[in-house]
Design goal:
About 35% of the residues lie in helices and about 25% in strands. It is an alpha+beta fold. The termini are far apart. Belongs to the FliM family.
Length: about 325
């Protein structure tokens, strides 16, 4: 164990304090003998580092942005979703923290083992359903009396929303969220053992004039296979690896080379009045601004890329490229 080394000034100050009586040598000896004890609660076992919690927060900040866009489009109203907190707590503490009667969606996230829970506060869930049915987004808490139609509407909305969770997690691993159960009573929610550590991501949610929380509960058993990927080192390594992939760029180049595009050669331009245009007849001649001894422009899309000269090849009209036009259109030069 490494020991602290005092400087000469610190040693002089310590000896001075001992000689003047400002500091007691016995007191120093007693403090050295006393053990420093830190309280540790085994029921709240911290199984994720701060670095890993930050990574989970970053993932779900992206998920919150995607979810905001999705619900805004589906409900045609103001929606704002943001990450409020990311905590690791025992599973029983999560169950106690949510209302006894609420909207619980249980998802499998293959290929990861286990299941996750996404709890929608009833105020939020009913505001969504009211908007789906053409209402103003009013919130009414009547979870105990959900009809079959209301359950189907909510299930469909929440199931399609999980495509955004899949996209948010794609930077770490590929998952396929599937809604397996729809529950309203937390007493029937037996996900993991009560003392199992879970990560709870709380999202502040505002829909129209209604507000509430969306809580995402992810057990440790789900995240255990991908815990090494939740470190900053992995993110930085992935970023540097993704930059240097010559094989992928080679394949991308081959694909682009096969793409077709429109080419056109501009023979010249002219300006005439509307009256002259209306009175044009057969064999009339329109004067172009293109000199006959100057090369023509070959356009790729709407951009002039080459200077060419006209001619024939095998009884077909053709052009021969003379030089490349660099720096934009001809007018820019």
């Amino acid at each position: 164990m490494a020991e602290d080394i005092l400087s000469q000034n610190e040693i002089d100050a310590l000896l001075s304090a001992l000689s003047t009586g400002e500091m007691d040598a016995n007191q120093l000896k007693q403090e050295e003998q006393d053990r420093k004890v830190r309280v540790y609660d085994f029921k709240r076992a911290l199984r994720f580092s701060k670095d890993q919690i930050r990574s989970l927060s970053r993932i779900h900040e992206n998920f919150a942005r995607l979810l905001t866009t999705y619900f805004s489009a589906q409900l045609r109203t103001y929606v704002n979703i943001s990450v409020a907190s990311v905590d690791q707590i025992p599973y029983e503490e999560f169950v106690r923290s949510v209302p006894k009667m609420t909207i619980l969606n249980i998802y499998s996230v293959a290929p990861l083992e286990g299941r996750i829970v996404i709890e929608f506060n009833p105020n939020i869930a009913y505001a969504m359903m009211d908007r789906q049915l053409g209402g103003r987004g009013a919130s009414v808490n009547k979870v105990e009396n959900l009809t079959e139609i209301e359950t189907t509407l909510m299930t469909s909305l929440f199931e399609r929303a999980m495509e955004n969770l899949q996209e948010a997690w794609s930077s770490v691993t590929d998952i396929t969220p599937v809604l397996e159960e729809f529950e309203v009573n937390t007493q029937f929610l037996q996900l993991v053992s009560p003392n199992e550590t879970v990560v709870v991501v709380s999202l502040n949610t505002t829909i129209g004039e209604s507000s509430g929380m969306i809580n995402i509960c992810i057990p440790h058993v789900v995240l255990e296979p991908i815990i090494p990927r939740l470190s900053v080192h992995y993110w930085m390594q992935t970023k540097s690896t993704s930059i240097s992939k010559p094989e992928e760029y080679k394949n991308l180049t081959k694909t682009i080379e096969k793409a077709s595009m429109d080419l056109k050669v501009v023979l010249g331009e002219s300006s005439i009045s509307m009256e002259d245009l209306l009175h044009l007849n057969l064999n009339d001649v329109i004067m172009l601004d293109q000199p006959i001894d100057q090369p023509l422009s070959l356009h790729v899309g709407n951009q002039a890329k080459f200077r060419v000269q006209p001619g024939k090849k095998k009884s077909k009209l053709a052009v021969q490229i003379i030089e490349e036009i660099k720096g934009g259109t001809e007018d820019d030069e």
